[in-house]
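TA notes, week 10

Several of you asked for a full example with nothing omitted. So below is the full record: structure tokens for the whole chain, then the designed sequence directly under it. When grading your own attempts, check the secondary structure regions first.
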């Protein structure tokens, strides 16, 4: 959770004392972790104080003890687009990978790009100029839990 909080602080102009973080779902595949989370500023009253994020944590490399994390931040409109990409990817399952769509992050200091592909699961690739590119393949066994997380976050962002 500390790594996720640090990650959010890198993307949200300045991290405020009232920022609350909730990991909605966490998926593991070998040594990778894929998180769905929400955050909001409890001291602000506008819907703009709420965000969602997808984060991919990769193991530490080259003797560095801290794992690498790359995240993509969403407001409600972007989250709805993610749900549309997810639905398209689930319907397009096949034995080979095919890109179903992509998004570019807005309102962050390090703009990330998210690509969603369909194949034997759903592949999420997050790339940024500062953090590089990471990917996570969500297995078909995790589809139901991921979809529940998508709609739970949508409800959070809609309130």
């Amino acid at each position: 959770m500390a790594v996720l909080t640090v990650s959010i602080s890198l993307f949200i102009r300045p991290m405020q004392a009232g920022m609350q973080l909730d990991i909605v779902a966490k998926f593991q595949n070998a040594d990778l972790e894929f998180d769905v989370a929400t955050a909001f500023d409890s001291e602000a009253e506008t819907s703009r104080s709420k965000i969602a994020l997808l984060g991919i944590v990769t193991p530490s490399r080259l003797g560095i003890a801290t794992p690498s994390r790359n995240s993509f931040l969403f407001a409600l409109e972007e989250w709805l687009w993610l749900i549309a990409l997810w639905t398209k990817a689930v319907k397009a399952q096949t034995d080979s990978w095919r890109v179903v769509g992509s998004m570019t992050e807005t309102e962050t200091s390090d703009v990330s790009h998210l690509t969603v592909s369909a194949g034997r699961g759903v592949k999420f690739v997050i790339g940024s100029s500062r953090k590089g590119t990471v990917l996570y393949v969500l297995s078909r066994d995790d589809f139901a839990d991921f979809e529940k997380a998508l709609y739970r976050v949508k409800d959070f962002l809609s309130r």
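The chain has one domain: 2-158. Use that as a sanity check on your answer.
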